[in-house]
Amino acid sequence: MFVFKIQLCLAGCTVFIGWSNIKGPIAWLSNSDLSPREAAQGPEGRRRQKVCKPPANFIHVKLEEYEPADFSTKEIILKKAREVCTCNHQTIITFFCRLFPVLDWLPRYNIKTQLLGDVISGLLVGIVAIPQSISYSLLANQDPIYGIYTNFFCNIIYVIMATSRHNFVGSFGVLCLMIGQSVNRHLQLAGYSDNSAGSSLVDNSTSASNGTSACDRSCYSITVALSLSFLVGLYQILLGVLQLGFVAVYLSEPLLSGFVTGSSLTIITSQMKYLLGLKIPRHEGVGSFILTWVDLFRYIQNTNICDLVTSLVALAIIVPVKEINDRYKEKMKAPFPIELLVVIVATIISYYFNFEERYKSDVCGDIPTGFRTPTLPDINLFSSLAVDAVPIAIIGFAMTVSLAEIFGKKHGYTVRANQEMIAIGMCNLIPSFFYCFAGSAALTKTLLKESTGTQTQISGLVTSLVLLLVLLWIAPLFYSLQTSILGVVTIVNLRGGLSKFYDTPRMWQLSKLDTVVWWTTMLCSTLITTEIGLLVGVCFALLCVIFRTQRPRATLLGKVSSTEIYEDQSTYKQLSSIANIKIFRFESSLYYANKDYFKTVLYKKTGVNPVLLAAKHQRVEAQANADTGNRKDACPPSTDMHTLILDCGAMQFIDTVGLSVLKETRHDYKKIGVQVLLANCNPSLRHRLREGCWAGEADSGGQLAFHSIHDAVQFAERWYHVRQEDSKEKDALQAAEDLNLQASL
């Protein structure tokens, strides 16, 4: 026999075709596939296997692999270190341009084509941000001025460090809720009650570092919030520096959507007391949602009629106008700023009719102008805030990165996730020295920013200028603004989160598991706590992924007539089965968690349990031998198949347990005379099979793992034909020997 090699220029691959010196291709059989007599006869026995003419020509394709790059871990580390530590003029410029992207895009800023859109968008977002900044401060358990500080500083820093052109970074309702819960918990630990006086700002010289006795409730609240913001920013910067942006992928869209909806329900619940003008304690921890509603109904008779009427009128005005803005946003050049208009009108009416004195309505009170002297976070609070900062940091960067990637893809520019994490981290760390609480990309204002024609982050500077006007001159004018109006503004801006309820039927049709993840996260975030809800959601989503791989879909395949296509017999009609060949597809990787399910469903689909069949055959044979008194050579039990083909196209990997299962499967089926072939194995899977010797020395060259199902089927038919011909030849030889023996007698 001679073997020649044909070099084909197809995708850089080399195809080997083995050919014997007789007509017909080689069947690539080894000693393990021969009978004991033929194996003992050596090459002559093997030759008899090869000379049988096949029913159809079969060519076994073996691709020549590239030699793997020989890089040691040490060399890779040294190479990376040399790249990082190289210091020259170009690397320094590149480093600062990557750390501060504004240095890259600002020199190329086109004033004629981009400035007008940025100015208009920045003004509109700034107008909307004024009432939301004040209302979200209430949600974070802070004085109104601190919400304006937060949006002002965050926008300036984000302009310098962001790769996104459309994100608005500042106070975000879900984060404000989590911050407010943490602040309230620390206020209770410090001995402040909900009725504590002293909501006005104290002198800059008083700080929590001098002891809580020198700091009133408002001062201690912002001290806790800015210390929390410092830790949140520190966590986010570390994640970005360590290139851990991939962590965001574990927060799936259904999980985040469910979390936002659950948090929205909690926020609405916390704002109801302002709409009704009730003075009830703010509950924290497990069951706070239910306890708050119990208190609302318990003290419903104490409702402030003035606040209730004002809230209903504001809702009746704001909601329809915002619906009109949403419905005709493509036709309108800019949305109508109804929230700001309602806030201004409500403030004027409250001032002239003296709602505070006449109807005992709660108002914002004194809002100072200007900036306060920078301060340091309270290090003594870090130990108690370290855990609270983790979910806030995760949700903050997840929302920021998600929105940045959505609009980056929509408008055709690249967003760097790790840089976004560093940017949002700096937006929380630096402002913490200027009396700000943690923020992130805000969904409603980002959507408004994008829809009003923003081109770059210059619009963020324009928004900061609008807020600066409020900080320097306009803020005191909001003294008479009722807190019930702020509650209405907060609730109205949560419509997006609540609208997700309408999407759940469609989500159920697309993916039942994703819908279960959504409902689980939403209910846990609402009924337990936001932090626990997020943790439960992440764990449950990961369990769903494991469940999907632990009990994946498994099917038998049939052939499409007159083609080389094989598809699921339970899904498609008019598929033909291959005689005495079963093709089994397992739609998942094979690893320790699904090894038992793999064997169970394999036996069920093929209708053959090789272990039980072999044991039954052994018992029958033992009984027959006992009855006859002599021992005969064992022959395999009869089955309706001679070959089992495992379609590995959906297997991304197998671990050592999965490899052992494949070995056991091949060994068990071989006992009953069924060979096992693999098809559609990816290169890494083939490498693992080859290194693990899944078929022993018989498959050292990988001949029993095929590149397609059709190749495996052709090989199986050829193998079966050869075995049948050999069986006939053995019967003929045995008959001839018997005749010779009789003649000699």
UniProtKB/TrEMBL annotation:
The transmembrane residues are 115-134, 146-163, 224-249, 255-276, 336-353, 381-401, 422-443, 455-474, 518-547
Compartment annotation: Membrane
What is an annotated GO biological process for this record, any one? transmembrane transport
The question of whether Membrane is a record keyword is answered with: yes
| Keywords carried by this UniProt record | Membrane, Transmembrane, Transmembrane helix
- PANTHER family, A to Z: SULFATE TRANSPORTER
Q: What is this protein called?
A: Sulfate transporter-like
Q: To which species is this protein native?
A: Strigops habroptila
